[in-house]
Amino acid sequence: MQRVRKAVIPAAGMGTRFLPATKAVAKEMLPIVNKPSIQLIIEEAADSGIEEVILVTGRGKTEIVDHFDAHPQLEEILRRAGKEALLREVLRPSQMVKISSVRQQRPLGLGHAISCARHLVGNEPFAVFLPDDLVDAKRPCARQLIDLYERTGKSVVALMNVPRAETSSYGIAAGSADLHDPRVVDIKSLIEKPAVEDAPSTLAVVGRYVLDPSVFDWLTRTNPGRGDEIQLTDALAAMIQAEGLLGYLFEGDRFDAGDVTGYLLANLNWARKTPRIWTSLLQYVDTHRGSEGDGG
Ligand code: G1P
């Protein structure tokens, strides 16, 4: 079984749910406490054993690539000032994984974005991380999927149960649970953002995938689907019969950082890890509880 060493991160989206903040700033650069959210994604990738990340970017996203590059001038200033802890923080993003990037020239959909990375992935299995989905887990979410891929040789998608009313916001899977491991689902069908009444289950695809490179061939045969875009979900649905597809009900807490409320909850979640910040936040909430909607 080939090891999963590479990951593709599609980051070309415009972030319209976050306007006006994302008019001139890439949504992936909005901070979770003191790190851009994309850094949490790449930390998860590195902690999952990924060695090489391919960012699929678009216009206005060069700052993401800059963030993961070295910054010798800033490093020298911090070194001279003896600010060792800050220096380590500045060096870290450029040392975690090898990063390359490719531009998606037109917004033709998630499936199209993934196929833009084909020449850099080559003929080996790879992970996909959707940067809106942040997952806080003891064992990194992508690692959980990679372990299953390396055990079975089948492509794997992360799954989570959602309220039925939310099924129309996700790819929805239907299948049967594995007898030996109730977290593993043998997927029989997959549908992108079905109407609530058409959803075959409440099992939603979350933005982590481990894919066989054959997905690139399936993508070339995939016609535009929902939203007139080439959907990754449709290519995976086509793969099921020929190659099989597994779902994994991962352990961990997932936050939708592409949505304002989800983003603020993610900030609270990661702020909780720094007692000094968390204490101040709790004090603020205690003082202001009951004053919702007050101006000023
Ligand atoms: C994408 C996928 C969808 C998946 C979701 C998870 O949709 O197309 O299948 O359930 O990510 O976050 P998006 O939210 O990017 O529209």
Could you explain how this protein is built, in words?
- By secondary structure, this protein is an alpha/beta fold.
- The protein has one domain (6-288): Spore Coat Polysaccharide Biosynthesis Protein SpsA, Chain A.
- Helices cover 35% and strands 23% of the residues.
- It contains 11 helices and 13 strands.
- The strands form 3 sheets. A 5-stranded mixed β-barrel has the order 8-11-9-10-12. Strands 2-3 form a two-stranded antiparallel sheet. The protein has a two-stranded antiparallel ribbon with strand order 7-13.
- Helix 3 packs antiparallel against helix 4 (84-95).
- The protein is globular.
- The mean pLDDT is 95.
- The structure holds 1-O-phosphono-alpha-D-glucopyranose.
- 1-O-phosphono-alpha-D-glucopyranose binds next to strand 11.
Spell out the blueprint of helices and strands:
Layout lengths: L5 E5 L20 E2 L2 E2 H11 L4 E6 L4 H6 L4 H9 L3 H12 L2 E6 L6 H6 L2 H4 L4 E4 L3 E4 L4 H12 L3 E6 L9 E7 L6 E9 L10 E9 L3 H6 L11 H12 L2 E4 L3 E4 L3 H12 L3 H14 L8
Parallel strand pairs: 1-4, 1-6, 4-5, 8-12
Antiparallel strand pairs: 2-3, 6-11, 7-13, 8-11, 9-10, 9-11, 10-12
The chain binds 1-O-phosphono-alpha-D-glucopyranose.
The site of 1-O-phosphono-alpha-D-glucopyranose (G1P) has 12 residues, from strand 11.
